[in-house]
Amino acid sequence: MLPGPAADAGSSRGRAQSLVCEAPTDSDDPYWAFYEEVAAAQLREWLPTRPGRVLDVSGPRARFARQMVGAGHQVVRVVTDAVPTDLRERGGATPGAGGGGALRPVVGDARSLDWFHADSFDAVLAEARALSFCLATETTLEQIHRMLRPGGQLLLCVDSLLLGLARLAEQHRWAELSDVPRADVVLVPADDGTITRCFWPEELRALLSSAGFEVDWIRPRTVLSAEAVTRALAEDVSCFPTLVRTEVELSAEREGESIGIHLIASARRPR
């Protein structure tokens, strides 16, 4: 791993402290509703305008897959036996309401994608921190590169090193925290026993490049603090759309910076 400045990580830790756990899917927290709309807006901006075949390895939630189907894409969504599949997905492909798009779930392990044919997708979406759960991220990225057609795109979201530092501090793992600047890989346990891999922007760029990708950009998912967003919405809920647009613009302006709890990246397989 390429270490970041310790002073910067320490001064930023408080911004991530209240968000060290991923929001529950049924959360009524106004910040997480805002976060989800920001993610949807970023996906909308990234999606290819020409409908194509997209692989979705974003975990148990189908929200992003449905958004892509609504935009006219043929979406193959990887699910596991342990995760109940949405009722509307059972029984085969689900056509999109907008026409042209369709959603087809397949049962498999998103951490190992060698069971797909090479050059079989126009785009791959790895939202919801999916690649942070793939601890051998290098191997997963190489498999994604193999599955993409030349010119195919990848959009991913991972845990930031800032979030990892906040989690380690919350768990009082001072020895592990002090080792972070010297670590090649930072793996952080969560309270439920799961382990996720956290990334600094430079490390993520190096991993993508090593797997053969051309990196378009790496950005923080969010820049505004949870406290600022919650306060603004409490004062005037009608500012919600404006806040979402502002957050998307700020994220693009802070390209390459490690701010907030998650990083997003866009890359493509060279033609």
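^ that was protein a. below is b, sequence first then the tokens
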Amino acid sequence: MKLSLRSFFLGTLPAIGVLLVSMLASAPAHAVLTCTAAMTDVNFGSVNPLSSQADAVASLTYNCSKNDGGTDSAMVCFHIGEPLGRQWNPRLMLSGSNTLQFQLYQDPGRSVIWGSYGFGSATPAAVQFTLVGSSGAGSRTSGTIPLYGRVVGGQTGAIPGNYTDVYQQVDTAISINAVTGSTPPSTCPSTYQGSYFPFTVSATVTKQCVVNAVSDVDLGTVPASATNVANNGNISITCSNTTPYYVGLRPSNNSTVGAGLMSAPAGNTDKVPYQLYQNAGMTTLWGNTATASSAGNGVAGSGTGVAKSHTVYVRAPSADYQPDSYSDTVTVVVNY
């Protein structure tokens, strides 16, 4: 087309025609480069709110190609903003009005946020490459970029439920800086091409309970004539925020009403009865008929994400047994 155009102009306006063709011939050619990308979902799975921190890995797969000849190089940036312009450090997953903090990173050490020029941290993930030719393998390139996610630790108050953060087209973008030659540029433009890579971040915060500590109940050293020997101890329990829980106590004889028997070392067959109670007045026994939905004859509580203390009261009606050291083991059963 250039030769034909020059020949036509030479026949009518020689000087202008030659100048025009010379300008066209010397102008540098820029690659028409296009890229597409797809991101896998980031699924943290089950998250224990009492320990909180959880990691996940996803991956972005990209494909780029050009349609001209010669050698061209490019820097391509893949941008991730934040849905609805919500806070970006940390990012938030939602479960109704409840939130769970997390972040997306470019490195396995989780120190470089995967961000966007358009919103939040101006740190999109980037690749550089050189393409040769206008057809065949030399004009195309593809690759995979890992994405590293982390649920922020220390969120002991997180409420159990299913959490998501949905990145749609307006929250992801690709920008391309393509030049002629074999040296890729070191920056990306802040204008985006019409390609996106939507994905979803999800996690399930699970109900959790843990018995942190149990203090022994020492009824002391008493004479055989002693009656109604009593003392108390404490149970420390931590459950996830808003989680109802029900605590049962089970003596070693498996009594469901908290009526246990203390035993002495081998050779002494005496058993000293005792009773477990919920209150200082020792009028409400503490047994083991609690379930995941009912306290029964146990004690009910509601988790806050921090430890709660429950007092156990114990009374032995009589000490009139063979002198010895007597003990029993009571199992704390937390239903939730």
